[in-house]
Every structure is written in structure tokens, then in C-alpha cells.
Design a protein that fits this description.
Blueprint lengths: L4 H12 L17 H5 L32 E5 L2 E8 L4 E6 L2 E2 L5 E3 L8 E5 L8 E4 L8 E3 L5 E3 L7 E11 L6 E16 L2 E15 L4 E13 L8 E3 L5 E3 L4 E15 L5 E18 L6 E13 L5 E13 L6 E14 L12 E17 L2 E14 L10 E13 L15
Parallel strand pairs: 1-6, 3-7
Antiparallel strand pairs: 1-2, 2-3, 4-5, 8-9, 10-11, 10-23, 11-12, 12-13, 13-16, 14-15, 16-17, 17-18, 18-19, 19-20, 20-21, 21-22, 22-23
């Protein structure tokens, strides 16, 4: 039989009471049943206490089930939450409070609503097995032995963040502090019964601390869906006919107002504004929830640079975004691509080649180290390189760069597929 809540409290209270002369019992008392212990009268009062004393939840204890009602159970030992199975004659019982390290009640439970009424009477569970348990918690949260709730799952595709760190490399603006910011919202839905996801990005960008370089995008939107029929079907006739459906899923991407400013080696300021861009995307790999992917991007746009009359960039890129664990604590992202810049008219006053291009490769790893008030702080390490000849007085060969940042999320909810806590880990 599991030790009951009241039995533990009775033991704690009697241990603090003044010792009394032993009285031999008339008959040896047997161990009380679970219900008898729960509804037993309170022990002899000791020194006044500022709050009720309840037992800490033991490692391995099960948790009440999230989404199912928990009845209020009030006993002389304290107030509890109970979920009972009449068929199995078994109740999971958890303290309806947050506890201190010494078992003293410190406040109400977090991340859970009030227990259901009417109050569960002890007589209703007479003869039931009573199992000390952990209070229920929403998906993506975990309670400790003191019933405190902490978020342990984070959806980094839905968040608002600010970051800062250091960049080192061979670019003219490198070897100094950088800051970054952004907001992301992924919205999955069903379009005519087909899973669809729309990704929206706001004000994602970075800047050098001294203002010598910066770049940000006002808004990006892309949409992809799981088509009921494959877009590409391949049938081979070597031996018996075999059909293969290579993963290839089409989507759309659009961007408005991308801005870049750079101070060249001569000290002159170069600025470029991309008014709009659009592209077709083709996912060659993705998870069932469409959140993680590797895809191709083919498109173009219109932009204007300092001293120019406007250019048409053609965009070719491969991008990837993958979550490396089930709680979203580790992420890997990467991209490589080429942009061919086709001049619409006269170029900048400084001499530039007629065929201009920008090339880049970049890999980024993000690891959530801790959270503050359930909002994550992560370490972001990125490495990459670029080559471009569209900026006057700028390195035209491949130049490498490494950055390390600490990124604070102001809002990051749990993953939509986050699990609920089933027990207190041993």
C-alpha cells in the first residue's frame, strides 16, 4: 500500500510535538487503510504554523492526466486534487498547492485551473487505493517534487527574439559586436482537407554595433502543403515495372522590403533596398508536420542600390531548417545560394562589372541553454562565407565569417506536438 498524504503529515506533526510518556495500547494497532489515514482527525496541535504542511511528491509518482477533470478533495491533512477510477477503485491524489523545500505551502498551483466541483467526499472513495501523485500540467511543461511548473518545450518557429554577440571574419565590418532581432509565426491548417503551413517572418535582421553594416527584411511569407497526389512520379522498367514517388512538394515564397547598408573600405556608404521578391519553392525533404524541411528556391525580384537605377536579381538557393530533439532545444539551419544581378539601366557611378552576383553559404546551430520566466535563452553559433562583386570597393573573393550570439526570446510557446508529463522522473 502506498503511503498516504495524511499518514505522512501525521508523522511530521507528531515528530514535532512534545514527547509524552509512553502508554501501552490495549491492543496492538494495525496500519490504517488509505482512506482511514486520509480522513483521520488532525494531530495534536503543536507550535503555530504559517501555512499547511504537505508531503513533497516522491520520485516516480504518477501525474494526474491533463485534460481530464480533477475533483477537489478536502481532508484534515489539507486540500488535494483527485482523479479516481471507479472501475479500478483507485485514486490519484496530488496536493493542490505549490510547496516549499520543507513541504510548507507557498502558493497556488501554476499552469492549471481550479479543481472541479462538487467537492469529493472521503466517503465516496472509501476502500479505494489512494496513490500520491503529481498535479497535472499542460503539454510542454514539467512539474518538480514541489509542484512548480516549468516550460521545457519551445517552438522556435513561433517566437519574438532579441540577440547580441560577436562576429569575426574577413569582411570590412567584422571583428565587433552584433545585435539581431526577429519575429516568426508558423500557422498550420487544413486546406480542403490537406495539411498546409504558412510561415510569416517579421523584421528579421542584424546590425553591427558601430553601425557600419546592417541588414533586415520587413516581411517574408511562404506557404507549402502536402499534396494528396505526388507532383513527380517515376516508373522504371529494369526488371518488373516499379513506381517511385520522389519527394517534391511545391510552395510559394514572397518578400517585401529587404534593406542592406554597408560602409565600404573607403568609408563610403552603400545601400540596397529590395522592394519585392517572389519564388517557387520545392521541398525535397520535410517532416510530417511540415515544420522541418530542405528545399529549393527559384525566383527573382526588383531592387535598387546607391547610385543605380534599379536591378533585377535572379534567386537560386537551397535552404534547410531542422529540429534535432523532441522538445525543440536544438536546431540546425543552413542555406547556400546565388543571386545574379541583372542591371535594368545605368549602374552606380563607381565601376562595377556588367555581370554582377552574390553568393553565400551559411550554417547555424541554436541550443536553448536556460529560460527566464519560461522564455528561452539560447546560444547561436553560425559560420559561413560570401562572395560578391556588386558593391564598390568591397572584397570580391570568398570571405569567411563566424558569429556567436546569446538570443533571448520574448515569446516562444511550447511545440504543438509537445508531450504531457506522465510521472516525476526518478
Amino acid at each position: 500500500m502506498f503511503p498516504t498524504v495524511a499518514a505522512v503529515i501525521a508523522a511530521l506533526s507528531l515528530a514535532q510535538a512534545a514527547p509524552a510518556a509512553p502508554q501501552p495500547p490495549a491492543t496492538p494497532p494495525g496500519p490504517p487503510t488509505a482512506v482511514e489515514a486520509t480522513v483521520a482527525p488532525p494531530p495534536t496541535p503543536g507550535p503555530p504554523q504559517t501555512a499547511t504542511w504537505l508531503p513533497l511528491v516522491a520520485p516516480g509518482a504518477p501525474a494526474l492526466r491533463w485534460g481530464e477533470p480533477a475533483r477537489c478533495l478536502v481532508t484534515p491533512a489539507g486540500r488535494f486534487r483527485a482523479q479516481c477510477d471507479a472501475a479500478a477503485r483507485r485514486c490519484l491524489i496530488a496536493p493542490d498547492a505549490t510547496l516549499g523545500h520543507d513541504g510548507q505551502v507557498t502558493g497556488p498551483l501554476e499552469r492549471v485551473g481550479p479543481c472541479a466541483l462538487p467537492v469529493l467526499l472521503p466517503a465516496e472513495v472509501a476502500g479505494f487505493e489512494q496513490v500520491p501523485a503529481l498535479a497535472e500540467s499542460p503539454p510542454g511543461f514539467r512539474r518538480d517534487e514541489r509542484q512548480r511548473a516549468s516550460q521545457i518545450s519551445f517552438d522556435l518557429a513561433r517566437r519574438v527574439w532579441l540577440g547580441g554577440g560577436w562576429a569575426s571574419g574577413g569582411l570590412p565590418w567584422s571583428n565587433q559586436g552584433v545585435v539581431s532581432s526577429g519575429a516568426r509565426i508558423d500557422h498550420p491548417s487544413l486546406d480542403a482537407g490537406v495539411p498546409t503551413i504558412v510561415r510569416v517572418r517579421f523584421l528579421e535582421g542584424w546590425a553591427a554595433v558601430d553601425g557600419s553594416a546592417a541588414g533586415f527584411s520587413a516581411v517574408e511569407v511562404d506557404a507549402t502543403r502536402a499534396y494528396p497526389h505526388p507532383l513527380l512520379r517515376l516508373t522504371t522498367f529494369v526488371g518488373r515495372p516499379r513506381r517511385f514517388d520522389p519527394p517534391l512538394y511545391a510552395g510559394l515564397w514572397a518578400e517585401a522590403l529587404r534593406f542592406e547598408t554597408l560602409k565600404t573600405r573607403s568609408g563610403a556608404r552603400y545601400q540596397r533596398t529590395r522592394t519585392a521578391a517572389a519564388a517557387l519553392t520545392f521541398d525535397v525533404w520535410r517532416t510530417d508536420d511540415l515544420a522541418d524541411f530542405i528545399r529549393l528556391k527559384l525566383g527573382g525580384g526588383y531592387e535598387k542600390a546607391t547610385g543605380g537605377s534599379g536591378d533585377w536579381p535572379l534567386i537560386f538557393a537551397v535552404e534547410g531548417d531542422a529540429r534535432l530533439d523532441r522538445d525543440g532545444l536544438h536546431h540546425l539551419r543552413g542555406s547556400l545560394g546565388t543571386e545574379l544581378v541583372l542591371p535594368r539601366g545605368a549602374g552606380p557611378a563607381a565601376p562595377l562589372p556588367q555581370r554582377r552576383q552574390r553568393q553565400h553559404v551559411r550554417a547555424e546551430y541554436e541550443w536553448i541553454l536556460f529560460s527566464i520566466n519560461d522564455q528561452p535563452a539560447s546560444l547561436v553559433v553560425a559560420a559561413g562565407g560570401q562572395r560578391r562583386n556588386d558593391v564598390p570597393d568591397w572584397p570580391t573573393g570568398w570571405v569567411g565569417e563566424v558569429t556567436a550570439q546569446l538570443r533571448f526570446s520574448l515569446w516562444a510557446p511550447p511545440l504543438r506536438a509537445a508531450a504531457t508529463q506522465e510521472s516525476l522522473e526518478r
